[in-house]
Amino acid sequence: MTELLNTAESEAEAQARAVAGQGPAFLPPFARSQLGTMGIELELMVLDRLTHDLLPAAPDILHLLDKQQKEWVATPEITTSMLEVATSVLTGFRPAYDQLEEIRTSVQRAAFAVGAAISGGGAHPFQKWNEQRIYPKDRYRESARKYGYLAKMFTVFGMHVHIGMPSADEAVRVGAWLTQRAPLFIALSASSPCWQGEDSGFCSARSNVVGAFPMSGTMPSDIRSWDQFAAHFERLAGHGIVNSIKDFYWDVRPKPEYGTIELRVLDTPLHPSHAAALACYARELCIEVAQRPGTWPADGSRDVYTWNRFNAAKDGVRAVWIDPETGSARPVEQVVRADLARLAVRSEDPDFPAACVLIDQLLRDGGQAGWLGRHIAAGAGMNDLARVAAEMFDAPPGDGSKPA
């Protein structure tokens, strides 16, 4: 037992050094997980309660949250006006919904104590990248050194969903299928119509920021096993391009230390109840694919994926999605509703229908970007838009899922 513990500790230390750029490249072994377990990470805005500009108060909020006994965790992000929260391992919609509600109230309470407010959304409407401060942590200092101004430009706010995989090879295969449908999650979560004080013309302006980083995009389609991925990692590490799994900014990537695949394309929803629903949609898709062993997506679909991704970011829930398997083009709304109807029949989660109701809300009235867009059309300024988003996050479940 002692030998195993020491090995685990040395692997954790090696990974931490690799992530911080202070040691050799390290890819941990894939830790198998139970299929369908999931975890949810949310990057949240820390706002000034009066101006609703970003406020560098995350360290103070984290100090208060560290004193609280909880199953979930709160950690810093790359700039001091960002806060990341992550759930414990979950098994369905009700546990996700309940824990995210606990997180929402706890984070709001801590923020209020230091004169701040908390908001969801994919990008702050009027913050300026050059005014942001890098969080004083080795990993983030290394990111600032490596990526220059892009590190501060990365003051955007996303939701990541981890889905447990029973093997490393299945993580690669199921991840390839989930990648095909990733644009649907961009559309459903789109909540960043403004960027640097301007209406961007996109429903998810955040989605365009990640593409500036090397190693963004998707896993190469010719990778069809964990050994092939490990060889790919080793080759890039040999050139000094990557040092850890965190250097892959792919829309869907394996997360070997957790035994999961990680869906990374979503804007942070305006209310955590929608985050729970979208995570469960991804979970059900992965379970469905896992129950079709040996099947792979069609080859040569990269161009279609790039177009689907652009359309989803531009038009949100009103986008058109091209099926990479059949070539047919359908509105995102039709595709999602068909998915939910099919998944609801086979789901073993008794609360999945409640998740479907919340996703239906996201499909109506132009989605979250549409809700915010109507405030812009009515003459709201950027400060008002940030205030509205914060009020939606602050609302109790039920009220928080409706446009203000």
Number of helical segments with 4 or more residues:
13
Helix content: 40-55%
| Secondary-structure-derived class | alpha+beta
Main beta-sheet strand count, sense and barrel state: 7 strands, antiparallel
SSE ordering: HEHEEHEHHEHEEEHEEEHHEEHHHH
Average per-residue pLDDT, rounded, comes to: 90
Morphology call: globular
Straight-line distance between termini: 55 Å
Radius of gyration in whole Å, from Cα?
A: 20 Å
CATH topology tier name: Creatine Kinase, Chain A, domain 2
Strand content: 5-15%
Count of strand segments? 13
**Unreliable residue stretches:** 1-7, 400-404
Domain count: the total is: 1
CATH architecture classification name: 2-Layer Sandwich
Which CATH class?
Alpha Beta
Question: Can you walk me through this structure?
Answer:
The chain is α+β, with helices and mostly antiparallel strands. The protein has a single domain (26-394), classed as Creatine Kinase, Chain A, domain 2, CATH 3.30.590.20. Helices cover 45% and strands 14% of the residues. It is built from 13 helices and 13 strands. It has helices at 2-19, 58-65, 93-113, 138-147, 150-153, 168-189, 226-238, 272-290, 302-315, 332-346, 352-363, 367-377, 382-394; strands at residues 38-48, 73-76, 82-86, 116-119, 158-164, 194-195, 198-199, 216-217, 249-250, 252-255, 260-267, 320-322, 329-331. The strands form 4 sheets. Strands 1, 2, 3, 4, 5, 10 and 11 form a 7-stranded antiparallel beta sheet that branches. The chain has a two-stranded antiparallel sheet with strand order 6-7. Strands 8-9 form a two-stranded parallel sheet. A hairpin with a 2-residue loop joins strand 6 (194-195) and strand 7. Helix 2 crosses helix 3 (93-113), helix 3 runs antiparallel to helix 8 (272-290) and helix 8 packs across helix 11. The radius of gyration is 20 Å and the shape is globular. It starts with a helix and ends in a 10-residue tail after the last helix. The model is unreliable at 1-7 and 400-404 (pLDDT under 50).
